[in-house]
């Protein structure tokens, strides 16, 4: 049975919560990656920063959807959602733009579980965590490589 430990990438490209957004964007672009784990000084995973988090800065300020019912005004978008979108649009640091709730896997997770997560939730890359410490990442390409026959002599 193939596990995450067998195929994960251990050479990590990470960003820190206090890093400037421009620097983080440059790291993603230069390394041609969709996102990067966000780690604190102890190497603990505290979030993930994806290109979509950075692209959110190009959005226009969201205008709440309202409708009237019996002369009352009802807001369809919660104030919390609007505030979250505004924070992402105005973000200057990674901590302000990142997604703090991260789906991660353990090194002993079986490849079938990873494949299901990637397909069902449309994840391209998943952080690999032991305890709270980031130890690797596993991407769709890593999973695809398991379908190739082994190369003779290796």
Describe this protein with a few key phrases.
single chain, 154 residues, alpha+beta, CBS-domain, two-stranded antiparallel sheet, 7 helices, 33% helix, globular
Give an overview in words.
The strands form 3 sheets. This protein has a two-stranded antiparallel sheet. A two-stranded antiparallel ribbon has the order 3-4. Strands 5-6 form a two-stranded antiparallel ribbon. With 154 residues, it is α+β, with helices and mostly antiparallel strands. The mean pLDDT is 81. Helix content is 33%, strand content 21%. It is globular, with a radius of gyration of 19 Å.
Pattern of helices and strands: HHEEHEEHHHEEH
Q: Profile the largest sheet.
A: 2 strands, antiparallel
Mean pLDDT metric: 81
CATH architectural category:
Roll
Apparent shape: globular
- What's the end-to-end separation, in Å? 19 Å
Please name the fourth-level CATH homologous superfamily.
CBS-domain
Helical coverage, percent range: 25-40%
Using the CA coordinates, give the radius of gyration: 19 Å
Read across the widest sheet, the strand sequence of neighbours is: 1-2
Low-confidence stretches: none
Tally of alpha and pi helices: 7
CATH class label: Alpha Beta
The count of strands amounts to 6
Structural class: alpha+beta
CATH fold-level label: CBS-domain
Q: How much β-strand is present in the residues? A: 15-25%
Quickly count the domains.
1
Concise structural overview:
This protein is an alpha+beta fold and 154 residues long. It has helices spanning 4-7, 21-30, 51-55, 79-89, 94-97, 111-121, 140-145; strands at 35-39, 45-50, 66-69, 72-75, 125-130, 133-139. The protein contains seven helices and six strands; from the N terminus they run H-H-E-E-H-E-E-H-H-H-E-E-H.
